[in-house]
Task: structure prediction
Amino acid sequence: MTDLSGLRAFHAVASAGSFTGAARARGVSQPTLSAQVRALEEAHGIRLFDRVGRTVRLTPVGHSLFAVTARLAAAEEAAADFLAGTKALTRGHLRIAADSARHVMQALARFRDTHPGLTFALSIGNSTAVVDQVAAHEADIAVTARQTSDPRFHSVRLRSDRLVAFARSDHPLARYRSIPIEAIAGQDLILRERGSVTREVFEGRLAEAGIRVGSLLEVQTREAVHDAVAAGFGIGVVFGSEFRPGEGLRRIAVTGADLSVAEYAVCLEERRRIPVVRAFLDILPDREGT
Result:
């Protein structure tokens, strides 16, 4: 059986990017850490790192092993937290990956008020990427508009929303409070990158209606959608709750198409009963679990 101390030492070095940083984080000497990693490499006849000055780079084998030890580290952390008192949620750490900070902040605020001893980390990505982070044990919960039927995941509906269009005040469509989806035909459009539910839903409704747009500008963030519209590149599309008034922008409701969307909190099925994860899911308002 592989010595777990060697795997832990390897994971620490891979996470820190150096033996020095890993030794400092683990509170052990660098020679001890180096010996543990070297013993692991020699026991299995592999090379896990390429040494580059004072830093290290993972070899292909190292990359593959790091994906495994990430799950091991997450399991050990969950067990330690459980045994150390997080069942009562007096302390602990929750990692959330969300497709929009706006969609998760109210829930996080309620959770903080209920469990003041906990800490949080929040990362932002598109709807596909945040679920991938949960699958890779890089996040405990994903908040995403993409519902999944994958049996590895458990999901709870967080909130409902609707897509809206918006334009700069001097755009010909900005004088209307609502437009039929057919009015988008021939217009220059600004959307998030592929993997975004905003783009997936809106392009799907355009296709259903047989509508062709003018040019399509693809950007990576919701802030960039607003900035591009403000710069006059065309019409933007965002969740209604994400529209940022001001800057001479006009919100426009789009009729004649189902632009409703929902946000879900998603975790791995195997981790849904970990106290800090379960407690977050329990404070969500809709509580429609799948």
Observations:
- The chain has a mean pLDDT of 87.
